From TrEMBL:
<dbReference type="Pfam" id="PF13692">
    <property type="entry name" value="Glyco_trans_1_4"/>
</dbReference>
<protein>
    <submittedName>
        <fullName>Colanic acid biosynthesis glycosyltransferase WcaL</fullName>
    </submittedName>
</protein>
<dbReference type="InterPro" id="IPR050194">
    <property type="entry name" value="Glycosyltransferase_grp1"/>
</dbReference>
Length: 408
């Protein structure tokens, strides 16, 4: 009942769903040892994330010299596996060379090799027999190379969209073919894994949703009057579509003079978002809060009549689950796993990249009678609690870990 989890950077403000998953597994009797390649502790705002950081072993904090000594010592004891792992690292690194920024080339994959050898040693010392990685990027590369050098068997969860943007570069199919099992957070995600894996691997590809903790979402607060009031939550990055959302708000306020958007989040595009808000003269219509902890995010949801998600690319956003659990309907782009959760009785789906459609959805929401909005929120709450209870989803993982991924 003792296994390890591996994430590239953990914990992070945007990865609370992984913490919830680990805690749910621990409630079911699993002893989870946390590994991460690096920490993001300087950016953490939630005390729960800070506590999780203290419980996590961060591989790169060992330092380059000690990491190399540990890795070379382990590889010397496992020469056959080490030679194979070197070949695999060079193979995956060759696909990455000059193709996708951030995935690195052969040199970076040799660094992953050192991390993997050290991780295999640590798992051996701690008697960890299974390693589960989150995201099919470098963390799963490290898990795969570790298994080749005598480390524990591995599994991994893909989220999207990053893994599906560059599946060949990331050797995604190869990682899934060699894993004990692979998990996607939506049926759409599983379909993308099927694209890049051998048909014989498909029975080992499973859907386990990201989950919410229902007890943190008591009966919803009443739908606020006035407005319309919308909230958007997420990283201020290209894929989230917030720049387009600001344009859509600028269109919508022409006929909705009391429209207000609370935008919760931070990121590299914050200066551009702030400039767009100022350029459109939306200072009184848009509030940009920066990052908020979980309690204050729930407050922001309670103060809105709907969540709006204008993303260009996604997996299946946890913020949609949280909004629905809070009894709020959702306006979202119809991409990836989102239509699996948001339905016509719980919100509005619009084409991605279409600012006019976003503005029209705001109009539709504003013209919806309050009792209908409340009914939509109630339907949303029932749907998400039925499909995304973290304890139920952890039970699915428990079955997979217990069976080592074998069908039946």
């Amino acid at each position: 009942m003792k296994i390890a989890y591996l994430v590239n950077t953990y914990p992070r403000n945007s990865l609370t769903f992984i913490r919830r998953e680990i805690l749910a597994l621990e409630r079911q009797g699993w002893d989870i040892y946390r590994f991460a390649l690096r920490s993001d502790r300087s950016a953490l705002v939630d005390p729960a994330d800070m506590a999780e950081d203290a419980r996590t072993e961060h591989v790169l904090e060992l330092g380059a010299g000690k990491l190399m000594m540990s890795a070379l010592g382990w590889m010397a004891k496992h020469p056959v596996g080490a030679v194979r792992a070197v070949g695999m690292a060079l193979r995956c690194g060759a696909r990455a060379d000059g193709v996708t920024p951030g995935t690195g080339g052969r040199m970076r994959h040799l660094i992953y090799l050192a991390e993997a050898a050290h991780l295999a040693r640590r798992c051996h010392d701690l008697r960890l027999t299974h390693l589960h990685a989150h995201f099919g990027t470098n963390s799963t590369t490290v898990a795969m190379l570790s298994a080749m050098m005598g480390g524990p068997e591995y599994s991994f969860t893909v989220h999207g969209p990053e893994e599906f943007d560059a599946p060949r570069t990331l050797c995604l199919g190869l990682k899934a073919d060699r894993a004990a099992f692979a998990v996607a957070i939506s049926s759409f995600g599983r379909s993308q894994l099927c694209r890049w894996t051998a048909a014989g691997t498909w029975p080992r590809l499973h859907v386990v949703h990201c989950g919410i903790e229902p007890w943190r979402f008591p009966d919803p607060t009443p739908m606020p009057a006035g407005g319309p009031h919308l909230v958007a939550i997420g990283r201020l990055s290209e894929q989230k579509g917030f720049a387009l959302l600001i344009e859509a708000v600028a269109q919508a306020v022409q006929t909705l003079p009391d429209l207000h958007l609370t935008l919760v989040g931070d990121g590299a595009l914050r200066p551009q978002i702030e400039a767009a808000i100022a350029g459109h003269g939306l200072g009184r219509h848009v509030t940009l809060t920066g990052w908020l902890d979980e309690a204050r995010v729930r407050e922001a949801l309670g103060g809105a009549q709907a969540l709006i998600v204008p993303s260009f690319a996604e997996g299946l956003p946890v913020v949609i689950m949280e909004a629905m659990a809070a009894g709020r309907p959702v306006i979202a782009t119809s991409i990836a796993g989102i239509p699996e959760l948001v339905t016509p009785d719980t919100g509005w789906l619009v084409p991605a990249g279409n600012g006019a459609a976003l503005a029209q959805a705001m109009q539709d929401m504003a013209s919806t009678p309050p009792d209908r909005l409340t009914a939509m929120g109630q339907a949303a709450r029932l749907r998400v609690l039925d499909r995304h209870d973290i304890n139920h989803e952890a039970e699915k993982l428990t079955e997979l870990f217990a069976s080592k991924g074998h069908v039946g």
